[in-house]
């Protein structure tokens, strides 16, 4: 990739993905519980995971910006407008996913504040999760791959992030199968992973824009 940090960004993002995936495992939770206690893990683990994930991503993003780089392409109209529209859709998909599961709970803030930290988790299958099982990944991928300007370093980041999302989805689904059993298996059979079926997407958009009478 010429004079760019392509390889370094790939390596850094690979290390980040490996660390983040390891921290998300039940084995790591059990390791923490052994030293800090089960109650501490139930209350603070999610917040700790979010903070560590955010902080360790910052050096990777710094490499994307600071290492030598060159532009692969820049979009112009009308493709620029379509890309921005797609990125807006991606942000909306992520927002709907966070709204369905609870953005604060996703970060672990209510749990850390002692608001029902031991309450049983709920399998979310409504809202945007009725269209796809991984809306946060789908929305993020739309934002990443529809950048109006693509550079070598950003390409490396996007490639590694995509692989991380795919592997992360597999690990996440294994945990959900273990946690919810037959209920999650039935949901997974009926609902696509990343790309919603066209009919379901059209129906959902019509509901969002007040056109329920069409279906």
UniProtKB/TrEMBL annotation:
<dbReference type="InterPro" id="IPR033580">
    <property type="entry name" value="Nurim-like"/>
</dbReference>
<keyword id="KW-0472">Membrane</keyword>
<dbReference type="GO" id="GO:0016020">
    <property type="term" value="C:membrane"/>
</dbReference>
<feature type="transmembrane region" description="Helical">
    <location>
        <begin position="47"/>
        <end position="67"/>
    </location>
</feature>
<protein>
    <submittedName>
        <fullName>Uncharacterized protein</fullName>
    </submittedName>
</protein>
<feature type="transmembrane region" description="Helical">
    <location>
        <begin position="79"/>
        <end position="98"/>
    </location>
</feature>
<keyword id="KW-0812">Transmembrane</keyword>
<feature type="transmembrane region" description="Helical">
    <location>
        <begin position="6"/>
        <end position="26"/>
    </location>
</feature>
<comment type="similarity">
    <text>Belongs to the nurim family.</text>
</comment>
<feature type="transmembrane region" description="Helical">
    <location>
        <begin position="142"/>
        <end position="167"/>
    </location>
</feature>
<keyword id="KW-1133">Transmembrane helix</keyword>
